[in-house]
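Q: Here's a chain of 301 amino acids. Please give me its 3D structure as C-alpha cells.
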Amino acid sequence: MQTVPVGKTPLRSSRLVYGGWRIAGTQDATAVTADARKSGIAALQAAYEAGYTGFDLADVYCGGVCEEILGEALRQTPGMREGILLATKCGIRVPGVPAGAPYRYDFSARYITDSVDVALRRMGVSHIDLLMLHRPDFLMDPSEVAEAFGRLRSEGKVREFGVSNFRPGQVDLLQRYLGFPLAVHQVEISLRQLATLSDGTLDQCHALGISPMAWSPLGGSGPGSFSPGVLRVLAGIGERLGVTPELVALAWLIRHPSGILPVVGSTKPERIRAMARAAEIQLERDDWYRLLEAALGARLP
C-alpha cells in the first residue's frame, strides 16, 4: 500500500490506518478470552501483511488490553515494530478510579506522562511514534501539555504528537504553546458525519499541514450504516468501477485534498485485506459530489 507523510514530521503511514479498537473482541477487560487475544493478533498480523503501516490504539480500549494484544503481535511478528507507525491516545479517565471518581478528561502533565509509561509497558516497546490527546479536556492548560510533550520527546518516549476530536480553536490554542507542529487530528468523518467539511476542521488541517485521521469512516458498522440514497450511489459507482460500495466510501474520504487517513477497524483478515484496495481507487470529482449530495439528502445551494 502507498505510504504518505504524516503532517510535517518524518513519520510516514500507509494510506489507510489500521484501528485496534475491536481487537480484544469486547470493551470489558474482564471478559477477554485467550481465543479473543489470538484473533486480535491474527487481525493485526493480517493488516501488517496487507501493507498497513499505521496502527492506531488508545489506552482506554478495553482497559488497556488492546495495547497488550498489539504488544503480543509485535513480539510474535519479526520486523513488525520497525515497519510500523505505532500510535496511541491518552487523556480519558474511567469512572471509579480512584473510588468515587467520575468519568472525566485529564491533560495534566503528570497524567499524560504516567499514561505513556503504562502504555510502553503494556506494549513492550521503547517508544511510541505518535501520541494523541483523545478528547478535549476543558481544563486544559496548554503550557502544561507542552511541558509534558517536551519531556516525553526529550526522553525518547514519544516521537510526535497529535490530537483527537478537538475543535479548530482548541487546536490553535495548543499549537501556540508547542515548539513543533502537531502531526495529526483524528476526528469522525464519513458519509454519515460531514461536519468537518464545513466547521473548519479539514480547512485547518490543510492549512497547517496536519494530517486528518478519520475514525468510523464507514459510519460505524460498514456501508449498511449509510442512508438508502447513499447506498444506491455507492453501489452504482462501485458497479461501474468493479469494486465494492465499502471501497468507494473509503475512496471518497481519500479523495479530499487535506489528505484524510481513514482508520479501518475490522478484525476479519479477508476484509482487512480487501479494504486495503481503497487506496488504489481514483474517484472522479463528479462521483465525489454525487455522494456528497446523497449524504446531504438535498441539492447543494
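Q: Can you summarize the key feature?
A: The CA atoms of residues 249 and 271 lie 14 Å apart.
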